[in-house]
């Protein structure tokens, strides 16, 4: 399997998980309110059944908007809005009528899952049937619809990966992941690979000869050169557990997304070649799959029939791990008329790393320059505080306008790291101090050091400059980081509104 295909297969659970995280952590921006609730259905676009077998399918109804959606329902139809043809053999989700389900109310970012079953008869057209799940509002008004097709074939492999429940861990902790793979098809799969994808601060201790790291996924892939016959179920041996580990400095409390996929290890595939090339040195034992019996499918072209149920996703829920965000001030020192540059911002005194965008937060600094300084240059990661912070607003960093600025550091800061922003100006007069204020969010255990002064100190001569400050200034915009800055402002605006 090509890695870009693997990334594509992981996209749906990532999208749904991301909607949940963003909905909880952020955003109502200043865009006009939608005329209708924004609710979408996420469902595989192609469902293939084997003759004589049924297939159970899960779909999610997700509120992707910023406003609550009330009194929702979904209805099953064909692609013309007519009732589902009998040849499809549709069994509606539990608690639903023959062709409709009450969803109820969904808060922004919330979702609700349903499962239905199809058991096509011989009367199903050769090219299958195209169906639709339509979302409706309280008065029956249509909101959105998701099409999908149901097909029938004679033979094939149909791998299924069992779901994995969320895992709760303390920073530095680890847990064994229950991996169970079933072949619901009627042909044998010659080899199987299991891939785990995570995010920063998660790792998979790789001590097995048949596993290798995939950096693009923050994950690991393990190849098993053993057949998986029809209706056979295999699980990872208890003697060779596959574990996920949380870094000791992982910011928390936070939910870390993980995805898992089981896929065929076909001869000549890219994944198979990678597995062969990256085998661990001799001396390491292999990760083992062991039979867990047979499970005949009441739910059960050649090749993999339904790749969508090879994938599952879950969260690693990490408990609180504090990070002390400390404001870093500075002084414009010199005579009237001198031009000086200072660097101000935030330093992380640990012990954990600070939250980042994947944890629904960004480190930001609110900067007020003293009145006795006439600015001539502003860091490119800072925007005037009066700028339009709505999505689509003017987010052009580095513009000199007034004395108040919002500076964004779109990264996790590890202990001892700083995000500093430069300001250059001409000293015009003595004046009260300005300030830099930081917000470390729920991680920050100490609020007394969240504000630091930005002072003007007049000297009799022209020697001297801004106080020396160490640390790497952020330069994300200079390297194509405009999108990241916009994302950071998006999160900041959300955080403010949630607090309000």
UniProtKB/TrEMBL annotation:
Kindly list the biological process annotations in GO that this record carries: carbohydrate metabolic process
InterPro entries reported for this sequence? Ig-like_fold (IPR013783)
Top-level taxon: Bacteria
UniProt KW keywords: Membrane, Signal, Transmembrane, Transmembrane helix
Which residues belong to the signal peptide in this entry?
A: 1-30
Q: Which residues cross the membrane?
A: 476-495
Q: What is this protein called?
A: LPXTG-motif cell wall-anchored protein
Organism annotation? Pseudosporangium ferrugineum
């Amino acid at each position: 399997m090509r890695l870009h295909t693997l990334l594509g297969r992981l996209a749906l659970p990532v999208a749904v998980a991301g909607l949940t995280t963003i909905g909880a952590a952020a955003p109502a921006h200043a865009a006009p309110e939608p005329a209708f609730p924004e609710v979408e259905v996420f469902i595989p676009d192609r469902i293939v059944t084997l003759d004589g077998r049924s297939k159970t399918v899960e779909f999610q109804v997700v509120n992707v908007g910023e406003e609550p959606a009330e009194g929702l329902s979904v209805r099953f139809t064909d692609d013309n809005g007519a009732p589902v043809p009998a040849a499809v053999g549709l069994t509606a989700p539990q608690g639903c009528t023959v062709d409709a389900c009450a969803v109820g109310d969904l808060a922004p970012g919330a979702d609700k899952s349903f499962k239905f079953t199809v058991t096509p008869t011989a009367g199903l057209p050769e090219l299958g049937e195209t169906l639709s799940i339509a979302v409706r509002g309280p008065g029956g008004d249509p909101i959105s619809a998701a099409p999908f097709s149901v097909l029938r074939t004679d033979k094939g492999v149909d791998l299924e990966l069992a779901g994995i429940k969320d895992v709760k861990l303390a920073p530095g902790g680890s847990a064994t992941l229950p991996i169970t793979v079933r072949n619901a098809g009627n042909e044998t799969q010659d080899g199987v690979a299991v891939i785990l994808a995570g995010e920063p601060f998660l790792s998979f201790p790789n001590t097995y000869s048949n596993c290798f790291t995939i950096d693009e996924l923050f994950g690991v892939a393990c190849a098993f050169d053993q057949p998986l016959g029809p209706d056979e179920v295999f699980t990872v041996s208890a003697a060779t557990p596959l574990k996920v580990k949380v870094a000791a400095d992982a910011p928390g409390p936070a939910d870390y997304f993980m995805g898992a996929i089981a896929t065929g290890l076909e001869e000549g595939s890219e994944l198979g070649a990678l597995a062969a090339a990256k085998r661990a040195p001799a001396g390491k034992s292999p990760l083992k799959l062991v039979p867990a019996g047979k499970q005949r499918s009441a739910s059960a072209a050649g090749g993999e029939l339904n790749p969508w149920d090879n994938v599952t996703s879950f969260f690693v829920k990490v408990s609180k791990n504090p990070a002390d965000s400390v404001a870093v001030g500075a002084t414009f020192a010199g005579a009237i008329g001198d031009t000086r540059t200072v660097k101000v911002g935030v330093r992380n005194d640990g012990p954990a790393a600070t939250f980042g965008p994947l944890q629904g937060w960004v480190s930001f600094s609110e900067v007020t320059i003293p009145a006795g300084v006439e600015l001539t240059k502003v860091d490119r990661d800072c925007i005037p505080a009066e700028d339009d912070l709505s999505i689509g607003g003017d987010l052009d960093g580095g513009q000199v306008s007034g004395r108040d600025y919002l500076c964004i550091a779109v990264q996790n800061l590890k202990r001892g790291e700083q995000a500093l922003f430069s300001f250059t100006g001409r000293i015009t007069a003595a004046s009260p101090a300005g300030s830099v204020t930081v917000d470390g969010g729920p991680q920050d255990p100490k609020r007394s050091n969240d504000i630091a002064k930005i002072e003007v100190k007049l000297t009799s001569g022209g020697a001297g400059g801004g106080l020396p400050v160490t640390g790497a200034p952020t330069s994300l915009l200079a390297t194509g980081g405009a999108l990241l800055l916009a994302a950071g402002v998006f999160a900041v605006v959300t955080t403010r509104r949630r607090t309000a």
